[in-house]
Amino acid sequence: MTSTLEQRRTVTGPKTSDAPGGLVTPRLELDVARAVESYDALTQVLPGTGIHYAVKANPHPVLLRALAATGSRFDVASPAETEACLAAGAVATDLVYSNPVKRRSDVAAAAAAGVGLFVVDSPEETRKVAETAPGSAVLCRLVTSGEGSDWPLSRKYGCSTDQGVAVLRDAARLGLEPAGVAFHVGSQQRDPLAWRAPIEASARVFSALRDQGLHPRLLDLGGGFPARHEGAAPALHRYGAAIESFLTRSFGGYRPETLVEPGRGVVGDAGTVVASVVAVLQRGDVRWVYLDCGVFTGLVETLEEAIRYRLSTPGATGRTGPCVLAGPTCDSADVMYQHTPVHLPLALAEGDELRLESAGAYTTCYSTVGFNGFDPLPTVLV
Amino acid sequence: MTSTLEQRRTVTGPKTSDAPGGLVTPRLELDVARAVESYDALTQVLPGTGIHYAVKANPHPVLLRALAATGSRFDVASPAETEACLAAGAVATDLVYSNPVKRRSDVAAAAAAGVGLFVVDSPEETRKVAETAPGSAVLCRLVTSGEGSDWPLSRKYGCSTDQGVAVLRDAARLGLEPAGVAFHVGSQQRDPLAWRAPIEASARVFSALRDQGLHPRLLDLGGGFPARHEGAAPALHRYGAAIESFLTRSFGGYRPETLVEPGRGVVGDAGTVVASVVAVLQRGDVRWVYLDCGVFTGLVETLEEAIRYRLSTPGATGRTGPCVLAGPTCDSADVMYQHTPVHLPLALAEGDELRLESAGAYTTCYSTVGFNGFDPLPTVLV
Questions:
Q1: How many whole angstroms separate alpha carbon A254 and alpha carbon A250?
Q2: Which segments of A253-352 are extended strands (E)?
Q3: Of A127, A369, B115, B371, which residue has the fewest beta carbons closer than 10 angstroms?
Q4: Is the pLDDT at B10 greater than 50, yes or no?
């Protein structure tokens, strides 16, 4: 298997650019040291909790190496992510395979690579893991509301507490270790209280399992830690304090080991998407700003305007006005912000740079392979 | 140019598979001969109209070569698409560069490659083309409602008839040829009547320009011709007849040359996405079917359930029931059909094949670069 970096080069190829200074736009400027700082900050506010970086947010190999070197563990969901972590220096026992619904061959590949901890959320998937990765430890994912988060949760994953107890009891019968419970409160979660209900629910599952003679030990608190997008979010230590108090209140003397799976919370603030203005057009009463970066070149999280990046325009200042922000492809769906316009300088013009801040997560990895002939978003390490 | 298979290997790398018969899933099975038949059918129902295949729908090089060999012209929107067409044997003068808002360097690259026909929709973009591709011909894109189409149109492109007249008059002053008008009625347009209003509007622009001593000659009728998705669409000849009658009624003796830009209408029915069932899970009252193909591996058009593919399950038959259809990544947004469930055999089980029919357009090209470690959708020629 070629390395991720080689793969990326293969995919993106050379590009032309209108940007000043010879640097191509669009690009993601990724500050790996900043991501490591965010990782360190999480270890500070969540002492004793294992930090498993969610590789899906940004799988850049230099980032993975830096995080592995600083002691990070990893959250993976596919064989390719497993391989990327091992190639970056992680050990397989530091991985949690958190995809609750998996191809059988993918479970087998993970087990062969030494992964020993899998998330499940159904009897069927538990049986699949028991048959394909016998003797592994499993966490059962509980369903949550996702309320308070910017990126929507569906009912795609998770079961009730009663089902969770049954799944983990089954797991024990099938020779798996019923290690504990997992949940996820939704990405870019702005409310630390969102952890309360699922921690209480998890404690009920743990208690029921203990009553049945089992020994759950591990609670996966998921991700959801915010990046600095538009709109306020509490300080990180508020999340740590809230989670700590919920754990104490719900588990008392039976406090389990804990882990979290931050993706955006580690790499979000470490990246900036740098785009160039292709055109500024007045359409009736509406000013449209067209960028060389859009929904199909990395800005998928703007769908339904869910994630609102902070914007800056270093070369254009002065009075601002509302405008719609659109991407470069000829697809009508390639519009980032329309229902709630953004405010940008009235002086903004073709060729100016526009920076989308805190865009290190879910951008390069969400790029299409090159829809409409527009290359995937490349990464430049800064 | 490397062969298709090599290209696919380059992009996706090796994969494991749960599919029977040794073929990987997910995959797009692309029948190039079927696409050529659809092209031929369009030439039949639109006699005398130039057919410019919209490369964005599926840029597979073998498809482009086959279409070029059969006489197809092309609709491009970026330097990469231009290059792909020329490499496939098209001549630059058979291309229309239909992206109304373009990077200046991209206009220059197209002009250098010999492209001489550009779509614009604003004074700014007209000036850009005049400065960067002097002497070119331009079409001015008019805004339409998009009503009747499955894939939504925004107000991203197009101007009013008055603005169109002004833009084309300006174009003439700037040394460009004011060649005519373009519009687009929205992709997967189920109502042939959708062409009436924009053809009438175009005729008004042509008439006003003639009154000013100009000689517009070309009308770009856009795309929108449907593939066989769920739900009825009129037969293709109904589109041809409707367009013909609107042209006669609106233009009378001043009938212009015409062109269309079909993407889905050429390649949609020529492709089938073949996926495997990863799991079938009962979650409360709802049956969830998880595939190894999803929103991030090509099925972007299922967003908001806009495009509904016809589904078949060759290995599972019998009584059907409703279910939600979800993709393989651990992203909660990776759900194709939930609000309006699909109906699939109750016997459907892990490992079974599920085929999404008429999925040749906007699938491989919409794949992410490999989000969550899941490879882009590969193409297998059949």
A1: 9
A2: 257-260, 271-283, 286-291, 311-312, 320-326, 335-345
A3: A127
A4: no
Instruction: Say if the Cβ atoms of B330 and A100 lie within 8 Å.
Output: yes
Choosing among 2.40.40.20, 2.60.40.10, 2.40.160.40, 2.40.37.10, the CATH entry for B4-28+269-381 is: 2.40.37.10
**A111 CB within 8 Å of a chain B CB:** no
Per-residue DSSP letters for B264-305?
HHHHGGGEEEEEEEEEEEEETTEEEEEES--GGGT-GGGGGG
Least confident of A21-25, A312-316, B75-79, B264-268: A21-25
CATH entry 3.40.190.170 includes domain B32-267: no
ipTM passes above 0.90? yes
pLDDT digits (tens, 9 = 90+) for B41-57: 999 999 999 999 999 99
Contacting residues of A for B330, CB less than 8 Å apart: 56, 77, 98-100, 157
CATH number of the domain at A32-266, please? 3.20.20.10
Any A CB within 8 A of B325 CB: no
In chain B, residues 254-293 whose CB comes closer than 8 Å to chain A: 276, 278-281, 283, 286, 288, 290, 292
Most B CBs within 10 Å, among A369, A377, A379, to test the B interface: A369
Give the integer Cα–Cα distance in Å for B273 and A205.
41
**Would you say domain A4-28+268-381 falls under CATH 2.40.37.10?**
yes
In chain A, where are the structural domains located? 4-28+268-381, 32-266
**Which pTM was predicted?**
0.93
Supply B283's token pair: 């979650």
